[in-house]
Design a protein that fits this description.
Blueprint: E1 6-8, H1 21-33, E2 52-53, E3 61-63, E4 65-68, E5 71-75, H2 79-87, E6 92-94, H3 100-116, E7 126-134, H4 138-156, H5 165-170, E8 173-175, H6 177-190, E9 195-200, H7 207-227
Parallel strand pairs: 1-9, 5-6, 6-7, 7-8, 7-9
Antiparallel strand pairs: 2-3, 4-5
Helix pairs in contact: 2-3
């Protein structure tokens, strides 16, 4: 990967009987405080659906967007959405609950639309959300992530979820540390190194392990960027 960078996002939900969402966010922030502030990690932000208004017509709304720091990204929800984003050369955020096939299809549509609108997107870098569960026992990692997704669906889409949790797991990241790292590197290649990664570690049950993985990954990313004169 020639421009590897990553951030952290947190899915704000909680199951009945679990801690309040505000306490969960505080725990997430406490995890980040262990890592030096001068790193490649983004500030923790709340990710909500909004709309970016481009007045092609008075009532025309362009697409859902996500603010990451001072940068604006369009959430890649459909081919129509990415077509609108490409029209203004706005970068995308690929969703964690899409399969890789869906993500790559949307990227292809974006590139085709950018060409149609004569937009130069050589410097555009997208973001891709991934859930990560690192465990030497691959089955444990997958079960923890599956339980996490099931709780998420139960809280947010109890009656209208039509997807496959197993297929979503396959498009996120589980397994031992090296396998997870290789998966992310290979995925970056599939996206022609046009994406950075937003990683979520919330599903990991071993809190100490989660913190150590975040620190180890962060150090490796920083070293990679220093070695390649990216920071």
């Amino acid at each position: 990967m020639n421009k590897w960078n990553y951030g952290i996002f947190f899915v704000n939900f909680y199951s009945k009987g679990e801690q309040e969402s505000s306490k969960m966010m505080n725990n997430a922030l406490e995890t980040l405080r262990i890592i030096d502030e001068d790193t490649s990690i983004y500030d923790v932000v709340n990710i909500n659906d909004h709309y970016l208004v481009k007045k092609d017509s008075e009532d025309n709304k362009l697409a859902p967007f996500i603010a990451l720091g001072s940068k604006l990204y369009v959430l890649a929800t459909s081919e129509n959405t990415v077509d609108s984003a490409a029209k203004y050369a706005l970068p995308l955020v690929f969703k964690w609950d899409d399969t890789n096939e869906e993500r790559l299809k949307l990227l292809s549509s974006y590139n085709t639309s950018a060409s149609k609108y004569n937009q130069n997107i050589d410097s555009v870098r997208h973001q891709l959300m991934l859930h990560v569960n690192v465990n030497e026992a691959d089955t444990v990692a997958k079960e923890e992530l599956k339980s996490y997704f099931e709780n998420y669906v139960a809280c947010t889409q109890p009656s209208n979820f039509n997807g496959s949790i197993d297929s979503i797991i396959q498009s996120n990241v589980t397994g031992c540390y090296n396998d997870c790292l290789s998966y992310v590197a290979n995925l970056a290649g599939k996206f022609n190194n046009t994406v950075d990664f937003l990683l979520c570690f919330e599903s990991m049950q071993d809190k100490n392990k989660k913190k150590s993985v975040m620190i180890e990954l962060n150090n490796q990313v920083i070293k990679f960027r220093q070695d390649n004169n990216l920071i």
